[in-house]
Design goal:
With about 575 residues, the protein is mainly beta. Helices cover about 5% and strands about 50% of the residues. A hairpin with a 6-residue loop joins strand 25 (about 380-385) and strand 26 (about 390-400).
């Protein structure tokens, strides 16, 4: 990591003047943010004069995330260069309407500021239907009918701050900002559209970290945001959630969070993701107060910090032990996985989900018993870039030594190279990939057929429409039998189901009943039973029957997780 810099704007040799001076900004173009800087050698009162434009009153009830509650579309503000906090801005309340133009608003007054370094900003965003000034757009179009009004007024707008001790150019301010970011533990800033960046670091000692993040969000959802992952556990330890953010200035969708977290010694990765609009180089509504810090920045909290405890970290990506990727529509694939010794594995799975439910997803079962040991659940996923329904699971799973089957299935839309919404960042990985966490882990893929347990007593699966299949078997001694059956049913009735008959007594010893089933994935009518019964010595026949619709490879609704298991399978438990 770069060494900690002790920085002051006074040290930057780009001061324009010194003394009782004036800093100003004018000639701001549409959607442009102009910057200047100034310093105060002592606490003092400065005089500010500014001309901007806005409505008649602030907006109390916001109707969309493009709107700025302060209801200004040309205005100036000042932030503290060290704390990055806004200390003054033009508002409807502190400005007066221009006598000559009802949209223009003027500020003239004195403002007290503490000793320090400051950044002065001016932004002008032409009001239209897309950036929250709908009423302005309509009125301007009705009154003027062209761009003459905007072109005439933009030349008049300005801000002047009188009585400062030193003035800095925009280039000097940008140089200071870059130096500020260079001293940070991590700085992913000035994020553009459709960007996905990450940077890792390692800690030798426990450290309290200050997190400063700006992004885009609205109504409990974030569109541009950052998060932090503990790379040793693969757990997400911090995330920018809309509910914990505050208004960052400008459009209400501009969000900011200032947080402190304590990190233990270890390895960490900081991520930031942005969508396809409203970013540091292309604002489509009023920008935030600190536009060049759009992204996430981590600094040591407090003054006492030893930079030597922080080093760069680059995650080592090992070759996967298993991959099922590039999954298209209406697909199901499975692979066997043999784990020779207990171990921890990283699972990277991309799929489709929304509203708390997954539609394209993976899961892992024990080969011998069919018991599910892991599933890609919506609550454990995060956005994967592109459409909101692209979901990613990236975490650690412990697998004891044993034989497993890894499954992945998709529904009939939105999959690899058949996207009906924006694709995820890494579309070719649509599916599931399993990585070892360290070199030399004893695990490998295997043919599923070789893992089929020898303990299967009888199997009637992949059953189609209008079939009645049966298979007889002998039980030589009292035996515990596991039954796994998938079928169709609803409203307490089964339409595709199985049962077992004792051939000597002709009595049913077991039957698949709706009340004993659970959802088998996919449509709610896909039902599954997984139970254990005891059979006495004797001759038996297992039956499975289907009706005229919704069966293997002929589904009229979303298929179950494991379509090939449609039917019934009996497993012997123990010797």
């Amino acid at each position: 990591m770069k060494k900690l810099l002790v920085l002051s704007i006074f040290l930057i040799p780009v001061l324009i003047w010194a003394g009782d001076e004036t800093v100003s900004i004018k000639h701001v173009e549409d959607a442009q943010v102009k910057i200047a800087g100034f310093t105060l050698k002592s606490d003092k009162t400065v005089t500010i004069e500014a001309l901007g434009a806005g409505g008649n009153k602030e907006i109390k009830r916001l109707h969309n995330f493009q709107q700025d509650p302060f209801n200004m579309f040309a205005y100036a503000w000042i932030i503290d260069a060290h704390s990055r906090k806004m200390v003054w801005r033009m508002t409807i309340d502190n400005t007066k309407r221009d006598w000559w133009d009802k949209w223009n608003r003027a500020f003239k007054g004195e403002v007290f500021l503490k000793k320090g370094e400051y950044e002065l900003y001016y932004s002008a965003v032409k009001p239209d239907i897309n950036n929250g000034f709908l009423s302005f757009e309509r009125l301007l179009d009705m009154i003027f009918g062209d761009d003459d009004w905007w072109d005439d007024q933009v030349r008049k707008w300005y801000v002047r701050v009188k009585g400062v001790d030193a003035v800095l150019s925009e280039g000097a301010v940008l140089k200071y900002q870059r130096a500020y970011q260079d001293k940070a533990i991590v700085a992913l800033t000035e994020m553009g559209s459709r960007e996905y960046e990450k940077r890792g670091f390692s800690l030798k000692k426990r450290l309290k970290v200050a997190v400063y993040a700006l992004g885009e969000g609205w109504e409990d959802e974030m569109f541009d945001y950052g998060w932090i992952v503990d790379m040793d556990s693969r757990k997400k330890i911090w995330r920018m959630r809309e509910s914990r953010t505050r208004h960052a200035g400008g459009a209400i969708k501009n969000r900011v969070i200032r947080d402190e977290i304590t990190l233990e010694p270890g390895n960490y990765m900081v991520y930031y993701r942005s969508d396809n609009n409203h970013c540091s180089d292309d604002w489509n509504a009023n920008p935030p107060y600190d536009p060049n810090f759009w992204g996430i920045t981590l600094n040591a909290a407090g003054d006492k910090f030893d930079p030597s405890i922080v080093t760069e970290y680059a995650a080592e990506i090992l070759e996967p032990v298993l991959q099922i990727i590039r999954m298209g529509d209406s697909a199901y694939r499975e692979k066997g996985l043999v784990v020779r010794e207990d171990g921890r594995f990283r699972i990277f799975a991309l799929g489709e989900g929304r509203g708390g439910e997954m539609y394209d997803y993976g899961w892992i079962t024990e080969a011998k018993t069919g018991r599910e040991v892991w599933r890609m659940r919506y609550r454990d996923t995060q956005p994967a870039g592109g459409s909101y329904k692209n979901r990613l699971f990236d975490g650690i799973v412990e697998l004891p030594a044993g034989e497993y089957i890894v499954h992945y299935r998709t529904d009939d839309s939105h999959s690899y190279e058949e996207w009906n919404s924006p694709a995820p960042d890494d579309g070719k990985m649509w599916g599931i990939t399993i990585y070892p966490l360290k070199k030399g882990q004893k695990a490998q893929t295997s043919d599923v057929k070789s893992l089929v347990p020898e303990t299967i007593i009888a199997e009637l699966t992949r059953v189609r429409d209008d079939e009645h299949l049966r298979k007889s078997f002998e039980i030589k001694k009292r035996t515990r039998v596991r039954i796994v059956a998938l079928g169709e049913g609803d409203w307490d009735e089964m339409y595709d189901f199985g049962w077992i008959v004792n051939n000597e007594t002709k009595r049913k010893v077991w039957r698949m009943r709706y009340r004993n089933t659970d959802n088998a994935g996919g449509a709610s009518k896909n039902r599954k039973v997984d139970t254990v019964i005891t059979l006495e010595p004797g001759s038996y026949t297992v039956h499975y029957i289907t009706d005229d619709s919704h069966s293997y490879r002929d589904w009229n609704a979303s298929p179950p997780d494991n379509p090939k298991m449609w039917g019934i399978t009996l497993y012997k438990i123990g010797d």
